[in-house]
Design goal:
The chain has 302 residues and is an all-alpha fold. The protein is 63% helix and 2% strand.
Amino acid sequence: MFSIKSFVHGWDTFFYKEVDSSSLCLFRLFLGLFLFINGVSLIPDFDIWYGVGSNSVLPLNDSLNLSTALRLNLFKWMSPTESSAWFILMAYILSSFSFMVGFKTRASGIFCFILLVSLQTRNYAILNSGDTLMRCLLFPLMFSPADRKYSIDAYLLKKTGVEKSDLIPVTFLRLLQLQFSLVYLATTLFKLKGYDWVDGSAIYYTARLENFRRLAVPVIFDYAILCKILTWSALFIEFSMGSLVWVKEWRRWILLSGIILHLGIEITMSIGLFEWIMMGSYVLFLEKNEIHFFKFWNNAET
């Protein structure tokens, strides 16, 4: 029989119990790194994408007329000059680096989010799924206690003799995990609405998009049966990452299959930072004893 009391207890346990902060703090490192790389990558063509003059593919006045009044955009309030545009980019790069290393973590995260959204609003025509994903993941993360480990803030606090517990409420971790799963479930449902993924031909066509091709693998993508197997396998893995990853006994194998999928896409196609952001998000599902790469930090703290 259904019990309201057991439901409430399960809800509280799922969203509010205390857990170790290792995975959340490690994810802050990864996301901060991707935000920093994203900012640096904008420097070479910044005048083209964000310039205020006629050299820009989307002049500032046209951009402001296209964006709604409710959108967060620092370009609206700063003087319309090249110097102001460069100031926003440099501030974004600096805040993302500060967030990555965990210096004034919460303030850095909030500033980074405001600057990121402003840049994305300034020229939405060049955005991809990776840009949207960074924005969605940064929003809950910037309010979380992601500075408890692997951060300058934690180091400076320890030097003062103040000790903070490594345990944190699981709420923010759950929100990020749910966002992670929703990305995969939404992708799966979107693909099932078409016929290319259902009939198994999607991989064949995507492998021939020359504008996105990084490495051609004709031996695999020239055979219909192999294309069908790869297409349906990718679809099943994405569905599993959105649902079956929550089953503890299957979690490691599903995460491993997801890594293989994203590495395969990264090797064959060039689509920005999306694949790396998704793989970096896998640490959200790791427990403290599974984060072996950062074990030396734990040893240093004990």
